[in-house]
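User: Please go through the entry that follows and flag anything odd:
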Amino acid sequence: MTRTDPLVRLARVVGDFGSPFYDEERQRDVWNEASAFGLQLVLWTTMLSATLAIWIVGAPAVPYVVAALCLLGAVCMLTIGYAQRLGVTVTDPGRMLRLRLLLYILLFLALCAGLLRAAFLRETFSASFAVGLASGAGAALFALTVLALVSRRRSRT
């Protein structure tokens, strides 16, 4: 008997997938769609509220914005990791709505610009913080681009 992946075991406990609720196919489909809607809603509202907070409040909002982004990033990575552990690739660029992705990237860039603005205008953070922020954002965008290109290449073959 093979052991189940720890992430899959954790997801089964958190999601309570053994519940009789999941026995009925329509309920399961509706719940899957509702969960996907909820995840996207949390993703967009967190990014939008973090962007607004950093531009309106400025430097004092940075710790809260960073904490929210870390939590959001962890949840998204675990969600994608779970799907990948079960053989589903969710990063296929062919499936992503290009306009939505462009809007998300613009929102992300506005957030990064707000963080840089808070760092430089308030002189609260060191230059190394701003360099680290810019480097991290650039590395994340580079990684996403590489993943999209690799996924596109795999889908063509």
User: Anything to note?
Assistant: Residues 6-156 form one domain. The two ends are 34 Å apart (CA to CA). DSSP finds five helices and no strands in the chain. Residues 83 and 89 are 7 Å apart (CA to CA).
